[in-house]
Amino acid sequence: MTNYFNIKTKLKDSGDEWFSQPTCDEYIHSHLRKYQSEVRSYKLIEKFNETHKAGPIHVPRLIKHGYCCIELKSGALIEGVFLALEYLPFVKNKKLNDISGIIRKLESIGIHHNDLKKRNMCVDEKGRTFIYDFGEAVVDSDSLPSSSETEKTLVGELKDHKIE
Question: Where is the composition biased (Basic and acidic residues) (predicted)?
Answer without folding.
Answer: 149-164
